[in-house]
Amino acid sequence: MSTFRTPRRRARLALAASITVAAALTGPVSQAAPSPSSAPSPGAAGLGDPMFPLDGNGGYKVSRYLLDFDWQAPKTPFEAATTIKATATQALSRFDLDFAGNTLHTVTVNGKAATAVRDGDELVITPAKPLAQGKAFTVQVTYTADPTQIRHRDDAIEDYGWIPTPDGTVLYPQPNGAKMIFPSNDHPSQRAPITFRITTPQGLTAVANGKLTDRTQQADGRVRWTYDSEQPLATQLAQLAIGRFTLVDSTGPHGLPIRDVVPDDLVAPTEQYRKLTADHIAWLEERLGPYPFNRYGVLVGDTDLGVALETNTLSLIPKADLLGDQVSAERNLVHELTHQWTGDSVGIKTWSDLWLSEGHARFYERLYSEAHGGVVFEDTMKTAYANHDQWRHDYGAPAEPTEPNLFKRMRYDGSALVLYALREKVGQETFGKIERAWVTKYRGKTASTQDYIDLASKVAGEDLDGFLHPWLYGAKTPPMPNHPDWVVNPVQS
């Protein structure tokens, strides 16, 4: 990733980074709503998130993305168009989209040519006429997509963006790689439904989040696939995969449709673990309540990337995870499935809230694994406790990550430990009520760390802020309730 900044971009970055930490912890910055008579002004170039200040954009709210991809072959550029339906939340003289790489062709706003200037990962758009506050508008961007775009992080994410497979691709947009795939409002708090229309050569299958609504054979022999995500989703959780796939249908609890997407030669080798999904869903429903979406499935990634991803309704699981031992396979399957409740349905307001997503997924993954041949849950938490001060030193407290350390160990076992401490504090029955209330109250919404503390306090009938705040933000690990013998190892510089 280039670190070059134009003078204008440096100024904008400094402005965005100056957003106060207090505001960031309660959610992305929202500008005060101007009166309808206010003069048009530029929308904010970023939402001021402490991790990625210029991700997301101000001045509008997206109501739907429509993606048109004319796929050709692996690692081969292809023609694409993104149509964005949005509503102006202020009178706009111009606005930004997050858009990286790719060869830009045209930009229109409400069908009229607009001026578009690229500034790093920002596409700055000036419509022919200012946009009135409260009015719906449509943006269309045409471009040549580059399916070789990949960026790298030195944490659990590794490579992200377009991840090639032998005969196609899978997507790995987390954390902020959606901008390499389509122009967007690329921040986890900004969610909207997506319609995918993908044209492929005959013999290839395209899949995406949600429901297949149409498959049309065209006169030239190519096939157009249309999917509707059905529910709003964060851009980091979009999935679009193309390849020689077999679609394996089954049924989960309460008649839930399950469709696995499997490379043809991996159907039989991965069947043993894939067929456990219905049992995993039933196990999680006992603890978190009804599965929150209309369908689910596993997308088997035919890649060397050893990272799974909880893309909405279609979790990406690397083939290596499904070709090894059962305990490891089920840990990963349950982890990504848990995210459908916490991280996908209940989204995060800022990247500092990531502990709520990854901590929950690791907590239930470990809890399930203990009962199915894995390590004793309490033992893993005791080990995490011993290392917690070191992780705080190296990676930041659970709710205070830094950008390079966002997906480090603290956001996984270190954050699961916070939930374990809460369970020890309030008892298993009350903790279960907190968890079910969390995924029920915020189903289909975004929520913050403070939202979780407030809800936990309400359900428990006691103010838990004083208990949870040191666990989430303190420099030192607090004592573990009910375990006075647990010791934190000294920090090594």
From TrEMBL:
Limits of the Aminopeptidase N-like N-terminal domain: 64-235
Cofactor(s) named in the record: Zn(2+)
UniProt signal peptide: 1-32
PROSITE patterns listed in its UniProt record: TAT (PS51318)
Sample GO molecular function, one term: aminopeptidase activity
Low complexity biased stretches: 29-44
Region annotated Disordered, chain positions: 29-50
Peptidase M1 membrane alanine aminopeptidase domain sequence ranges: 279-471
Protein's name in the database: Aminopeptidase N
Organism name: Streptomyces lutosisoli
